Amino acid sequence: MEVERVQALATLDTLPPEFIRSEHEQPGITTFHGPIPEIPVIDFSDPDRSRIDRAIADAAKEWGFFQLVNHGIPSEVIAELQRVGREFFEEVPQEEKEAIATVPGSGSFEGYGTKLQKDLEGKKAWVDYLFHNVWPERRVDYKFWPKNPKEYRKANEEYTKYLLGVMDEMLKSLSVGLGLDEHALKEASGGEDIELLMKINYYPRCPRPDLALGVVQHTDMSVLTILVPNDVPGLQVFKDDHWFDAKYIPNALVVHIGDQIEILSNGTYKSVLHRTTVKKEKARMSWPVFCSPPGDTVVGPLPQFVSDENPAKYKTKKYKDYEYCKINKLPQ
Ligand SMILES: O=C(O)CCC(=O)C(=O)O
Fold first, then answer.
1. 16-31: per-residue pLDDT in tens?
2. Which of 1, 36, 67, 296 could share a disulfide with 252, CB 3.0–4.6 Å?
């Protein structure tokens, strides 16, 4: 079956109707205009680690989201990750991209694709993507990794090596911020078996950015999501009933608290609702890495946060069952 990719629509002058969001979603109507509250930016080079821990915990409680600067991943490593991803979308022939397309019904996210089904309102999102596991090694299937550009694999492996370190540090700060041992949240999320799924979003130029959305509003089912965007802004986060633009900070990592951390902390940390807008003049790209427990890991509110006065707000269940309900929009 021939699938229409959004990238093939980038030269249109008018937006096809299935991409026109209803008014309650249109960014032209629903984006907050006015003084934007300060979205937390955390400097990881601060020599006072307890100050970093506090800032991360506060951001996770209040926003479920922050940007991390001076995180230690060399800018060349990020630039190379971005170059090879951009070349895959923009320079590799379409047949070669289709050769690694997602396999419908396989139960796996991996591969190149476009969301085929329309949402409940019959609408589609203005984005194509590529998913592949990057960690642990036994979960990596290179058949879903682009063969071109040639440096694709090396660039992704190099970035992943650094990202594992950043993830560890974020989980330590978040644990300490809850008064736990620094290893507690990582242990509760699968320890060394925690799985990292790379996604590349390609949001082509769009004739009516005021009417369309890239990724529609959602929270991430992961433990944490750590993302780098290209230099085209577009991420919006929801807080106090408003959609706020997150500013683009060169070389910053964007960190989203995922649903599993909200659950483990019994609601102290918030999983952030977010979405993306698109642009008329330029394609936007982003590279989120979803850090998630292995499917059989049982996740629920940690006993330290449950009492008669503060009962469990979430069910305890295997991550794969949580994922199934989330993907199929079933109650948890
Ligand atoms: O592109 C972004 O900044 C966010 C992407 C995202 O939320 C997603 O792919 O789930």
1. 999 999 999 999 999 9
2. 67
Give, using CA atoms, the residue closest to atom 3 of ligand 1. Answer: 235
Residue 235 Cα to ligand 1 middle (Å): 7
Question: What crossing angle do the helices spanning 152-177 and 75-91 adopt, rounded to 10°?
Answer: 130
Residues near ligand 1 with C-beta < 6 Å? Answer: 199, 201, 215, 227, 229, 235, 274, 276, 286, 288
Q: Which of 314, 308, 332, 312 is nearest to 322 (CA)?
A: 332
Q: In what order do the strands lie in the sheet with 274-276?
A: 242-245, 235-239, 274-276
* CATH architecture label of 6-293: Sandwich (2.60)
Residue 4 has pLDDT above 90, yes or no: no
Q: Which residues are catalytic?
A: 199, 218, 220, 274
* Distances 263 to 64, 134, 183, 193 between C-alpha atoms, Å: 13, 25, 17, 19
Tell me the average pLDDT of the chain: 96
| Domains of the chain, residue spans | 6-293
